[in-house]
Amino acid sequence: MKSHIASGWKSLKNQFYIVIILFLYQLIWGYFLYRLVHSAVTPLLMRYPDPPPNELSQLLYYIEGKTSLSTSGTVHMYLWILLSMFLLRMLLTPFIHAGIFYGLHREREGEIGLYFFQGIKRHGKTVLLFHLIEWMLIAAPAYWIVPKVYATILNGMQLQTTVLQLLPYAATWFLYSYIVHQLILFMQFGKTGGTGFLTSLWLCLRGALPLASISLVLGMITLLLFSLSTCVSFFWSGIIALILLQGYHLVSCIMRIWGISAKFDLWYHEAHRGTEK
After folding, report:
1. pLDDT band for position 118 (50/70/90)?
2. Residue range 76-101, pLDDT digits in tens
3. I want to staple 8 with a disulfide (CB 3.0 to 4.6 A). Which of 133, 187, 193, 261 is the partner?
4. Torsion angle defined by CA atoms of residues 264, 209, 216 and 100, in that order, rounded to the nearest 10 degrees
5. Considering just the CA atoms, what is the radius of gyration of the chain in Å?
């Protein structure tokens, strides 16, 4: 496990230009999302009763907001824009992964360079197909889980009791989604590497223990960095908090590429076991 994480870090340094591309992508995406939310929320806050509201004026404010959600064309427009942005981001993700995978394969062949956009062109559609399958598999349990969750919420009397009742459903769905994601990820490694995707299913199962260890270690590092960034931004508000929040996008991109690279190294060693000297 340690060797795979170390090899993933080495690959990260060799492909660091991808981190910069993703960081700029996150900043641009965050800017447009901020402008959208700002244009929608500011007029809403301007309607909040001033001076401080009494119970009646506050109730009227909430009733107005609830009515707007169902009747206002402006609210519907913003919701459609958010949905469109979410779908666009989902569709862009597979192409980004295709570029990352291709760069890792070329690195294993001893070639280090700007292969990100070549990878998008060569394997973008293939990786998109795998992502569509993954999304459908992950969403499938919602057919059974959502009605049970809905019934639990309606019948729940106390928030704490309701959360405890929902926790097993959430944990099971999370574990199922994680397993599906890892299986599809290894299949993508095999397909983009020309070794086939069915064999990669067995490679994922055979390397399940180190794979879970890689996810756990890097996940804990990511959680720790996120917690530190959040805590500091709470105590140091203002421009420092803004810089930290924007800078965390860089950390997030680094951890994302590091995780993919470490798992790719595990796949590569499992796929070439017995052939390496």
Report:
1. very high
2. 777 788 888 889 989 999 999 999 99
3. 261
4. 10
5. 23
Amino acid residing at 116: F
Dist. CA 59–CA 57, nearest whole Å? 5
Is the distance from CB of 263 to CB of 208 less than 8 angstroms? no
Q: What is the pTM of this model?
A: 0.84
Instruction: At 165, list the tokens.
Output: 């009742």
The amino acid sitting at 86 is: F
Token representation of residue 266:
């595990």
What average pLDDT does the chain have? 83
Round to whole Å and give the CA distance between 51 and 181: 51
| Placement of tokens 């993703």 in the chain | 22
Amino acid making up residue 21: I
Residue with tokens 């609210």: 75
Q: Are 68 and 79 in contact (CB under 8 A)?
A: no
* CA distances for 45 relative to 42, 87, 102, 129, 178, angstroms: 5, 28, 47, 42, 39
For residue 156, what are the CA distances in angstroms to 149, 165, 166? 10, 9, 10
Render pLDDT for 44-65 as a digit per residue (tens, 0 to 9). 666 655 565 556 666 666 666 6
What is the rounded distance in angstroms from the CA atom of residue 257 to the CA atom of residue 268?
16
